[in-house]
Design goal:
Elements: H1 4-22, H2 25-34, H3 42-45, E1 57-62, E2 65-66, E3 70-71, H4 78-87, E4 92-96, H5 106-115, E5 124-127, H6 133-142, E6 146-150, H7 156-168, E7 172-177, H8 180-186, E8 193-197, H9 209-218, E9 223-227, H10 233-241, E10 246-249, H11 251-254, H12 259-267
Parallel strand pairs: 1-4, 1-10, 4-5, 5-6, 6-7, 7-8, 8-9, 9-10
Antiparallel strand pairs: 2-3
Helix pairs in contact: 2-6, 4-5, 5-6
């Protein structure tokens, strides 16, 4: 049976094949190797400050739409929203770059980087379905500091190679899992950051218990980021109690009547 994840990955492969025909991988790699930008330390930004008020770090997301919700914020101003995140307590910004199902682009990522380079500079996560080295080179050139690697999309050898390649460029890698089996697969690879997605990418069903169950297991080995299905500060507190260090939130912020206030709430920043 074909799942949502299968469809997304299949379309992503088609898009990448088109891009590679227009710009060969070797050419893109050489450009990435010539980049003089030094990535920010995304992993360090995920560690809550000792004695700080906020129990967890917030990764605030730039997202236009999703398969589960449809349009979220199709006409958002990437520069404006990125600066708003930085000014209201976010520790990092996640930018969707998958075009067909999430309405994202590398241009959105580059725009966020430019917006955050003339003020409070925050680390940027390129959130996409990364399937090979080509997308890591794209991430470097667009100004990312970290990439997402989804265990459900990659074989063990692919994960290992992509982790090593990301590190060679100074990029952090958030390795995403959804089950205990996936967690046990990735732990031997030694990831510094483990993302626990509360959304099942095959069915798009969301359950916060995924993080509540897996975070205590993962936190002994890596910094844990809980993703999806987080709606308010009560969720943040529950996740902090089980070992998470950060949360990644998009729809709850962008769908709020007051996005800036929602960022402050989730980040534990007093108004």
């Amino acid at each position: 049976m074909t799942t949502e994840l299968d469809r997304i990955v299949s379309q992503r492969r088609r898009r990448l094949a088109e891009q590679m025909r227009q710009q060969p991988e070797g050419e893109l790699r050489r450009l990435a190797e010539m980049s003089e930008r030094r990535p920010l330390d995304f992993a360090a930004a995920m560690r809550p400050a000792a004695g700080g008020q906020a129990p967890l770090r917030l990764i605030a997301e730039v997202k236009r739409r999703s398969p589960s919700r449809g349009d979220v914020a199709p006409n958002l101003d990437v520069a404006e929203i990125s600066r708003m995140y930085a000014g209201n307590g976010a520790a990092a910004v996640s930018v969707l770059t998958e075009p067909d199902y999430f309405g994202g682009s590398l241009e959105d990522l580059a725009c966020a980087r430019a917006a955050l380079s003339d003020g409070k500079e925050l680390p940027l996560l390129m959130k996409d379905f990364v399937l090979g080295p080509y997308q890591i080179y794209q991430a470097v050139l667009a100004g990312a500091d970290a990439i997402l690697l989804i265990a459900a999309c990659l074989e063990d050898g692919e994960l290992r190679d992509l982790l090593a390649l990301a590190r060679s460029f100074g990029l952090a890698a958030l390795v995403e899992v959804h089950s205990r089996e996936e967690l046990e697969r990735v732990l031997p690879l030694g990831p510094r950051l483990i993302g626990i997605n509360n959304r099942d990418l095959h069915s798009f069903h969301t359950d916060l218990r995924t993080s509540l169950d897996l975070a205590p297991l993962a936190a002994a080995y890596a910094t844990v980021v809980s993703e999806s299905g987080i709606s308010g500060y009560a969720d943040v507190r529950r996740l902090a109690e089980v070992g998470a260090s950060a949360v990644l939130v998009g729809s709850a912020i962008l769908g709020s009547a007051d996005p800036a206030a929602k960022v402050r709430e989730l980040a534990g920043v007093a108004s």
